[in-house]
Fold Phage tail protein.
Amino acid sequence: MALSHTIKLMELSDAKIAQLTSDSGASPAYSASVDLPGITKITLSPKADMKKLYGDSALLDVYQKTTEVELDIECSLLSLDALKVMMGGTVTDAGTTPSQTTTYSLQATNSTPPYFKLEGQWTYAGDGIGDGHVVLYKCKVTDPPQIDLNDASGNYGTVKFKAIALPATSNGKWFDLVLNETKTAIS
């Protein structure tokens, strides 16, 4: 029996990003994946350019072509390593116990956001489906991360950012939605 083509979108349980290092040849190449911890939401919104052809006092044709995919991502935890992948910048560890520090720095000389791959996994996709994955091959931040910090009387803070997906030059793909019969971890 073939795997179902209808899926449920529940239990987003993992997401990783990796910096795009090459977009030529048969497929894109990436750095090692970095966890987006506490992922709570990935929203994909394909956008299209549409043209209408009128003539003889009537609509004769409609042309539509996907031009981009907008992304809205939300996490409940902040990863300095993920900030580096999506925004540029550096992460520096210093000191020894009990005086260690970790510093994320964004400076004018390293503040150009690189392209990155985003992959998310949801583990409740339906009967007979182990999990589902969304893979976006070439993304860039369009609205830098908004980091909400709250005091003890409020709720936990969140990290929200927007990105855009373009088709990768090497494979022409904006994204894949992959269903696995057996649950498969993000590589």
Remarks:
- Residues 27 and 170 are 5 Å apart (CA to CA).
